[in-house]
């Protein structure tokens, strides 16, 4: 009788395990140049993960288990520190808990969100990266065991630096993030609310198209489902990478040096302005806005103030403070810093070389005579 009971208990446990499915593991990876503080929020009715927030230095990773059936969102907080009262506050993505753990609280906008529903309808996993609440850092979701070339169970996310191309009217204070049009203006047509609360009336806007062109595998507005939701068979693990496109740190430094050298050179020369390098129209290009206001992109117009400081992912181009995005006439320098010299401008005509300061020319002439 005792053996039969044990056998029944074992069968029940096996049934529960099969019904509930295998727990998943989220592996958080930080490829940014600075520390991030991931936050985790479970949806209503979903169990709390442990931890709900932690510190993740650059170049490190951490695994967090999640039970089957879990749903919620994760994000990266940036620029976190203790204030005068000892509470933890963050420049972007702050969950308002005042501590390392977010304790069920959501991210303050703007923040890039990675959203999951594990073992949902039909036992499948659903996931996406959302820019509906704005953007603060690049995020990439990679499912384990995804087939090469797959379209539904594949990597999803936003690897672009949207802070560098954020329209001026959406730029967060300090330039640390890019707000959504809904957050910035609060109008129903941007928030998909009121008369626009359905996919037939809430359509892409010029602002959402700026996001979509830069990050085609991310949600750009509330009804962006068909091209932005990804599905995998349940029971697999996921890697969540912050700043997935990382290049050697010297690339940004080299770009800064080259920009300084070029500015010094052209300050003495009378060469005409170099032609503006335009996008080829692929991901990252700015689409034409069929209706609505035209977003004010960086570099457009005359401008009245300096570019605000922006935290950069590893490999982003600019000076040591993260400023000076290579746009317009000097955009070839950024390509040169990463090894692409195809867009370098032509050499100056001889008549413009002659306009260089006299002292360097005499020095070069002297060196040439010494070598004869």
UniProtKB/TrEMBL annotation:
InterPro entries: Osmotin/thaumatin-like_sf (IPR037176), Thaumatin (IPR001938)
Annotated region described as Disordered, given as residue ranges: 273-328
A Pfam family the protein falls into: Thaumatin
Keywords for this protein: Signal
Protein name in UniProt: Thaumatin-like protein 1
Keyword Cell inner membrane: no
Signal peptide: 1-23
Organism: Dichanthelium oligosanthes
Keyword Cytoplasm found: no
């Amino acid at each position: 009788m005792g053996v039969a009971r044990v056998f029944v208990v074992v069968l029940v446990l096996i049934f529960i395990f099969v019904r509930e499915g295998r727990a998943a593991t989220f592996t958080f990876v930080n490829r940014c140049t600075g520390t991030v503080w991931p936050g985790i929020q479970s949806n209503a009715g979903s169990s709390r993960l442990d931890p709900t927030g932690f510190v993740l230095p650059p170049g490190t990773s951490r695994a967090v288990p999640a039970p089957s059936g879990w749903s919620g969102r994760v994000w990266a907080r940036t620029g976190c520190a203790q204030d005068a009262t000892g509470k933890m506050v963050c420049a972007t993505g702050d969950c308002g808990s005042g501590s390392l753990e977010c304790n069920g609280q959501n991210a303050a906008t703007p923040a890039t969100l990675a959203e999951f529903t594990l073992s949902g309808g039909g036992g499948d996993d659903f996931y996406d990266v959302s820019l509906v609440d704005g953007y603060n850092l690049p995020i990439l979701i990679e499912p384990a065991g995804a087939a090469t070339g797959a379209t539904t169970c594949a990597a999803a996310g936003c690897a672009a630096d949207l802070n560098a191309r954020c329209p001026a009217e959406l730029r967060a204070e300090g330039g640390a993030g890019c707000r959504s049009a809904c957050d910035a203006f609060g109008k129903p047509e941007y928030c998909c609310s009121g008369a626009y609360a359905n996919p037939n009336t809430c359509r892409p806007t010029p602002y959402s198209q700026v996001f979509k062109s830069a990050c085609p595998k991310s949600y750009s507005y509330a009804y962006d489902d068909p091209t932005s939701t990804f599905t995998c068979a349940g029971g697999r693990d996921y890697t969540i990478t912050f700043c997935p496109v990382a290049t050697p740190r010297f690339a940004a430094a080299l770009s800064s040096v080259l920009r300084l050298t070029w500015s010094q050179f052209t300050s003495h020369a009378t060469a005409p302005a170099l032609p503006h390098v335009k996008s080829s129209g692929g991901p990252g290009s700015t689409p034409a806005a069929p209706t609505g206001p035209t977003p004010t992109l960086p570099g457009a117009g005359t401008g009245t103030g300096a570019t605000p400081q922006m935290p950069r992912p590893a490999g982003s181009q600019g000076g040591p403070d993260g400023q000076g995005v290579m746009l317009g006439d000097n955009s070839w320098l950024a390509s040169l810093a990463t090894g692409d010299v195809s867009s370098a401008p032509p050499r100056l005509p001889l008549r413009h070389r002659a306009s260089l300061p006299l002292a360097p020319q005499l020095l070069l002439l002297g060196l040439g005579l010494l070598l004869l």
